[in-house]
């Protein structure tokens, strides 16, 4: 076997058997994915190719909103990373660490490679509204209530009210404890 063939074989093995979910997408539609990706979301491998990533979000609105954010970041750097709540086939929600790399920087979603890691063991999932999930994700990034209000086009009081609801739902006594619970850090 020549070196090029060995390199191709190694790349296929790495993609297929990676210990993290991997997907290659074209315009946010799954072209290829590995077994861990399918396992993470509760699908058989043959079910996901040619399906939109929207299938894996809690709502179509979140798919669109995160897509807009991702597009802006990927246009600037060619990469995207966040932690967000995703949805399994059975409808259950879980925290997921998502990383993406565009293969076409001028049109970031045209072709991209993504990794998806289930981080729900270290981060609680509670019944949150879509807006609470948005606020939780921004809090987990370390944003202040004022920054969250600007990012979501809310009044600062409304952002504070969402933060207070999150504290109550997660049983956190203060913002530091809330962020620790959202990020899975030990207290």
From TrEMBL:
Entry-linked Pfam families: GerE, PAS_9
Keywords: DNA-binding, Transcription, Transcription regulation
Domain HTH luxR-type: 121-186
DNA-binding in keyword set: yes
Organism this protein belongs to: Thioclava arctica
InterPro entries found in the cross-reference section: PAS, PAS-like_dom_sf, Sig_transdc_resp-reg_C-effctor, Tscrpt_reg_LuxR_C, WH-like_DNA-bd_sf
Name of the molecule in the record: LuxR C-terminal-related transcriptional regulator
Highest taxon in the source lineage: Bacteria
SUPFAM superfamilies in the cross-refs: C-terminal effector domain of the bipartite response regulators, PYP-like sensor domain (PAS domain)
């Amino acid at each position: 076997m020549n070196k090029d063939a060995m390199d191709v074989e190694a790349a296929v093995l790495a993609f297929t058997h990676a210990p993290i979910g991997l997907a290659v997408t074209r315009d946010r539609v799954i072209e290829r994915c590995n077994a861990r990706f399918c396992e993470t979301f509760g699908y058989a491998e043959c079910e996901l190719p040619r399906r939109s990533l929207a299938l894996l979000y809690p709502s179509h609105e979140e798919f669109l909103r995160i897509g807009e954010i991702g597009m802006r970041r990927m246009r600037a750097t060619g990469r995207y990373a966040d932690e967000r709540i995703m949805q399994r086939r059975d409808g259950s929600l879980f925290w997921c660490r998502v990383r993406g790399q565009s293969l076409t920087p001028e049109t970031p979603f045209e072709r991209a490679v993504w990794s998806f890691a289930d981080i729900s063991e270290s981060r609680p999932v509670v019944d949150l509204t879509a807006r609470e999930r948005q606020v939780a994700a921004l809090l987990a990034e370390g944003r202040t209530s004022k920054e969250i209000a600007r990012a979501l086009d809310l009044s600062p009081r409304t952002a504070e009210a969402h933060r207070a609801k999150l504290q109550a739902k997660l049983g956190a006594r203060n913002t530091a404890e809330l962020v620790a619970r959202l990020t899975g850090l030990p207290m």
